[in-house]
Amino acid sequence: MTAPLLQIEDLTVSFGNRSGAAFQAVSGVDLTVRAGEVQGIVGESGSGKSVTMLAVMQLLSPSAAIAGSIKLDGQELTGLSDRQMRKIRGARIGYIFQDPMTALNPLLTVGQQISEAVRIHKPEASRSEAKQRAVELLRLVAIPMPEKRAEQYPHEFSGGMRQRAVIAMAMANEPDLLIADEPTTALDVTIQAQIMELLDRLRREKGVGIVLVTHDLGVVAGVAKSLSIMYAGRIVERGLVDDVFAAPHHPYTRGLLDSLPQMDQRVERLRAIAGAPPPISARPSGCAFHPRCSYAIERCLVERPPLRPVGPVEAACHRAEHVAAESRARQDA
Amino acid sequence: MSVVVPTQRRWRSVVPAWATLPLVGGGVIILLWVIIGFTIPLWAPYDPVSLAGMRFQPPSAEHWLGTDALGRDVFTRTLYGVRHSFPIAVVVIGCALVIGCTVGAIAGYVGGLLDSVLMRLVDVTLSFPAILLAMAVTASLGPGLGNAAIAMVIVWWPIYARLMRAQVLSVRNREHVEAAVASGATRPRVLIKHILPLCWSPIIVNATMDFGQVVLLAASLSFIGLGAVPPTPEWGQMISDGALQFYRWWIALGPGLAILTVVLASNFLGDGLRDFLDPRAK
């Protein structure tokens, strides 16, 4: 087994407000990404997925307090100065933003933006070299006629093409790690598939490790190897994608899978998870999921379940065995 | 199948979309004044500062706008006036833009304590009426067009500082800025390459409209004797000459019309530019 490319240990991110109260957006998150591997992170809005990733890049506002350890290839990132972090952003970690419509500067041609990303980390590269590299990168992300496309402005690109351009920018300096923060949320389903295919190809050809943040389980199922499910700032279940999908051990995962439409069954209504995720300022006691959980018992109200190995996966639920058994029974039926 | 094209659309296909009436009208008037300013010595009918005929002549074929108390041709002096008003307006707007935009951009981008300090300075300056502050500063520096220009820069820079800060604040949270930071760009680079280029349009519009206002304020300062010194053919100075000659209306008419056309034209031009630069504002 190779050494992990990105290793997050016990990461806690809290935001203080003026009155001195601190809210934990992310609590005790562990995450490991290996080179050439896609790690999926799934959760509802506000579950702490993006905050975790922004903490890795140190792009959070100064009011955020980060505790724990974030190691990239063995190098500790927490506590690095802004100057040191700049050498890592873009060079060793590429970041793909959610909305390709707004992630590009409307006043620069796509080629100029990509060559700029190149020149930030290779100031010695000449303009023409950087431009050539931009065309190469556009070709890498399968944009047809890259020479012509490089001269165009973002508004001349379609959504899918823009996301390809954004990916090309993230790949400009051959980073070891790509963080894709909901890269397909703003796109059509058919384009989503193409973008996922592209990310998967980059993983195979360039051997980059990819963190795929999404709230779409379908997207994860296709390309990710392992998967972490987040709820209210914590990882509630993680394991290999196949294992988690085969038999979810956490009621939340179960609820997420149940709420997907099934192709082989006729259902009147999709089963949604009742209620809404708790706001950061009012996290429930015990297990944060208990108010919405149909499996909740007395113990869940007072004692927060730790993430523990259950069968092939890890789950943070007092009744994981019970949930898993029921999941399996349903699968067999 | 034949398609009937409405007249207006056919007209649109001949005239480009940006060529709206305010934009073209305002632009033409300003351009005319600029041409006059550059070429007037070549074709001026009289000398602007020496005797051209009898004093207090009403408008006639020789003196289109009559003559003033010293027998100088008002029409010639009016045309020469642009050589004082326009350079002043350009310099004042230019300096105010440079100072104001720099301060505003830094305040908006850096934020925090620096932002508060700079913006309070802006608030204090803006809390005085423009003409009053300009008068006070010019009076303390001594009369003269140069000192009036310095006073007007002091009056004008805070407007651009505020505008620029608001623009930077609205642009700096856009995703492409965050994307630039995520690709490792330094802070100055992010500001200059990814924020500032998106901030200019309201500032250009404002500067165009302010052009007329500066011409007006410069004339006002000269009118009360704080700007141009006689015998400079300056519009405000000329109006103040004419103000005492109530029944010899032609003395103030020329410079008055000149100021009117410049202020109107710059407002039209600014309006047209706004419609052109920001299609949503229509």
UniProtKB/TrEMBL annotation, chain A:
Membrane topology (UniProt): Peripheral membrane protein
GO cellular component, one term: plasma membrane
InterPro entries tied to this protein: AAA+_ATPase, ABC_Ni/Peptide_Import, ABC_transporter-like_ATP-bd, ABC_transporter-like_CS, Oligopep_ABC_C, P-loop_NTPase
Domain ABC transporter: 6-257
Gene Ontology molecular function: ATP binding; ATP hydrolysis activity
Subcellular localization, as worded in the UniProt entry: Cell inner membrane
Source organism, top-level taxon: Bacteria
Any one GO BP annotation for this protein: peptide transport
Keywords: ATP-binding, Cell membrane, Membrane, Nucleotide-binding, Transport
Any Pfam family: ABC_tran
CDD domains: ABC_NikE_OppD_transporters (cd03257)
UniProt family annotation: Belongs to the ABC transporter superfamily.
Protein's UniProt name: ABC transporter ATP-binding protein
UniProt organism field: Tianweitania sediminis
UniProtKB/TrEMBL annotation, chain B:
Keywords assigned by UniProt, alphabetized: Cell membrane, Membrane, Peptide transport, Protein transport, Transmembrane, Transmembrane helix, Transport
Biological process annotations from GO: peptide transport; protein transport; transmembrane transport
Entry keyword Membrane: yes
Subcellular location per the Swiss-Prot or TrEMBL entry: Cell membrane
Entry keyword annotation includes Ribosomal protein: no
One Pfam assignment: BPD_transp_1
Superkingdom classification of source: Bacteria
GO cellular component: plasma membrane
Topology versus the membrane: Multi-pass membrane protein
Bilayer-crossing regions: 21-44, 86-110, 117-139, 145-164, 211-229, 249-270
Residue ranges of domain ABC transmembrane type-1 in the record: 82-270
Family: Belongs to the binding-protein-dependent transport system permease family.
Protein's UniProt name: ABC transporter permease
Lineage: Bacteria, Pseudomonadati, Pseudomonadota, Alphaproteobacteria, Hyphomicrobiales
